[in-house]
Amino acid sequence: MEAQSRLAHIMKTTNVYIAGTNCITPLGFDVESNVLNILNGNSGIRLYTNTKLLATPFHAGIVDDDKLEAAFTQAGSSRAYTRLEKMMILALKPIITRPVADGRSVLIVSTTKGNITAIAGIDNVSPDAYLGQLAENISGYFGFTTQPVVVSNACVSGILAVSVAKRLLQSGMYDNAFVVSGDEVTEFVLSGFSSFQAMSDEPCKPYSAHRNGVTLGEAAAAALITTDKEGAIARITGDSSINDANHISGPSRTGEGLYRSVTNALNETGVKPEEVDYISAHGTATVFNDEMEAIAFNRAGLAQVSLNSFKGYYGHTLGASGLLEAVIGLESMKQNRLFASLGYDEPGVSQRISVITGNSSKTINYFLKTASGFGGCNTAVLFKKIADGN
Amino acid sequence: METKQYINGYCVIENNSVTVNGQQVLNTPGLAFPEFAKQAYQLADAGYPKFFKMDNLSKLAFLAAGLLLKDEVEDGKDNNIALLFANSSSSLDTDTKFQEQINDRDNYYPSPAVFVYTLPNICMGEISIRYKLYTENTFFIFAHFNAEFFAGYAAVLLAANKAEKVLCGWVEFYKDSYKAFIYIVSHEGSTEHTADNITKLYHT
Fold first, then answer.
1. Nearest C-alpha of chain A: how many angstroms from B24?
2. CATH of the domain at B73
3. Contacts of A245 in chain B (CB under 8 A)
4. Which end of chain A has fewer CB atoms within 10 angstroms, the N or the C?
5. Cα distances (Å, whole numbers) of residue A387 to A230, A265, B28
6. Is residue B175, in this structure, part of any structural domain at all?
7. Rounded to an integer, what distance in angstroms lies between the CA atom of residue A132 and that of residue A127?
8. Which residue of B has its CA nearest to A55?
């Protein structure tokens, strides 16, 4: 047997934790207000009539401009930032409680479309349309001295960035990774999803027999991933991102990529499927996505595990969704409380899954977050609760 | 004991020319990209008619990857080759095309066939489908080619047993300017997978 490499050894023995979280959403500008709204069954989704965005009325979860401006003015800055950058900066601000100019901290930005409005209506795109520039703008605000890393991998971006952070930290490249994810509701994405006829004519209903498509949303979420256990919420114990190798815009009928991703994350952790206490799944409420997930979770032996989708509260916030939903799922774990999967009524997938129908108490030690996206991508990340003094 | 990683093969596509492991295998000056891509497609012997529906970025990435994978992927085997891709302009080349379809409200015709390519990672999906790679996929964005990151992250994927080999790709396409630099990394070989060596090959 070949001697284990030094790097493999370091990676096996370095633990990585998630220590601070925050989010900016239509339901609030901190985690506490978001969770309170979720507990009360409040959704951030509204019906909008805005012909600048889409010719016909549409449902979406949109952050209020005035509230955003007010919050950002309070945060204070001399230079101009885009709307998305403001959301991302506000998401990061409260969790940046340690020096970031130490050369051991990295900023990881994840987004599907970034400042996509910067390409509208002009011949030459604004530099802000480049995701590298967006990341530099955020990095400059906080004074990071390392080069930012950008993950842009469709709708798994946010949770994939957590996986990337875990790996970079395990390898010893950095001690702290500040991960921020964000995406906006724009004319661009509304036009795209409606051209696919993938938009629901009412607030989306994940896993329901009556679901008929996605509702789009916008948000920014942030997390501090660190090798420092002090003050940690959870340890990131397993992660995997496997492609379906099936279709660029349609989910796999066998859920192959999601099944493999979940199984890999569990195996890396060394836990059995029945030890998983809770899954925050993707649940976009398209007919095919939710069905694919049900198949994958059944194949992985997770049919009995309590599961929800947060899309009924936020809509599909694209690249932000994976991190936003992990942030809220971690609150579930912290509070030992399951949140209802809003919009779910009658079962609407061919195989049994355990969709959470009402808020309830449950001890959560292992929390699984999954996401899937265009291009056949899937990501699964498993979190283990840090009990006090343990 | 330190286990090193090695570059097993590389492909560069730019300026209407295709180079595999330092050997130029196609050079067609003056052709527009779609015509050039058609000729390169014959060369890659890919047998994937969906190629002709792809956007420019996916065509570019698919061709460069195919020229390496055709000798690498074995049918019926679980080829655990991760895809580690990056570029600078994401999918802006196709984003601007989609934006043109929606800019004018009197002539509004968003096409789902274009919209699906407004994501940089779609090119990895195309490669995964053609070569049946049920493997790790991640698309990163950097302002400039980042040899250090490729060296570091590929080593991480191998050390963590996330993959047996890694197909690293810098695939940049915006307007008339493009470059693909794709190479394979594994635990065996002779050219060490260091930032210096990666940079050298990138500039060949």
1. 30
2. 3.40.47.10
3. 128-129, 131-134
4. N
5. 12, 21, 64
6. yes
7. 9
8. B105
CATH number of A236-385: 3.40.47.10
- For the cut 60, the answer to whether the pLDDT of residue A343 exceeds it is yes
Q: In terms of residue numbers, what domain contains B24?
A: 6-202
B197 and B154 Cβ atoms separated by less than 8 Å: no
CB A329 within 8 A of CB A367: yes
Stretch (H or E) spanning A4:
none
Mean pLDDT of A110-132: 89
Residue A287 burial class via C-beta count within 10 angstroms: exposed 0-12, middle 13-18, buried 19 and up: middle
Task: Work out the number of other CB atoms within 10 angstroms of the CB of residue A346.
Answer: 9
Number of domains chain B is built from: 1
Q: What is the ipTM of this complex?
A: 0.97
> What is the spatial distance between Cα A251 and Cα A364, in angstroms, rounded to a whole number?
29
The answer to whether A114 faces chain B, any CB pair under 8 Å, is: yes
The per-residue pLDDT for A79 is 80
CA-closest candidate to residue A65, choices A218, A191, A203: A218
* Mean predicted lDDT score pLDDT of chain B: 95
Please indicate if any CB of chain B lies within 8 Å of the CB of A191: yes
Number of H helices, E strands in chain A: 11, 16
- For A45-103, the pLDDT digits (tens) are 999 999 999 999 999 999 999 999 999 998 777 789 999 999 999 999 999 998 999 99
User: Touching check for A15 and chain B: CB below 8 Å?
Assistant: no
Q: Which residue has the tokens 């932000």?
A: A320
Above pLDDT 90, what percent of chain B?
91
Q: B58-107: per-residue pLDDT in tens? A: 999 999 999 999 999 988 888 999 999 999 999 999 999 999 999 988 89
pTM of the model: 0.97
Residue of A nearest to B1 (CA): A5
The ranges of chain A annotated as CATH 3.40.47.10 are 2-226, 236-385
pLDDT of B1 strictly over 60: no
In a domain, residue B145? The reply is yes
